[in-house]
Amino acid sequence: MSGDAKTMIESAVKSFLEEVPALEPMKIVVGVDLHARGDTQQFRIELPGVKVTRDIGTDARIRLDMRRDFFNAMVENGAKVADWREAFTYGQAKATGVEQYLRLIEQVVEKAEERQRMRKARS
Question: Taking the domain 5-122, which CATH number applies?
């Protein structure tokens, strides 16, 4: 059921960036904490280029926290940006860090979703 966390994170980031290509050139380091029963797996994602390593990520500007089983289910079901937004809204995933980065990412995602809605309305 669950695959290698490193490759799953990489595929999740790549699919997210496909939907929001404006974030691709952004230089940022993101720390990911996946909580499971009794332990936490920590990963470091470096953008651009999507480099995922198993590391604490002490230089991370943003830190994402979520349960490992929830993350596995999201990736296996091919989660879209709207699914991730819902997860953050209802507390299944949590992002902390530099407020300016968080606001910038949220604004870029909102604009990408708006463009997507406009494309659907025109079709």
Answer: 3.30.1050.10
Domain ranges for the chain: 5-122
Instruction: Report residue 58 as tokens.
Output: 């002490």
List, in order, residues 6 or more apart from 52 with CB less than 8 Å away: 6, 9, 10, 13, 43, 44, 45, 46
pLDDT digits (tens, 9 = 90+) for 91-117: 999 999 999 999 999 999 999 888 887
At 37-89, the pLDDT tens digits run 889 999 999 999 899 999 888 899 999 999 999 999 999 988 898 899 999 99
Rounded Cα distance, 52 and 91, in Å: 24
Does the pTM exceed 0.90?
no
Q: Among all chains, which residue has been given the structure tokens 């995602």?
A: 109
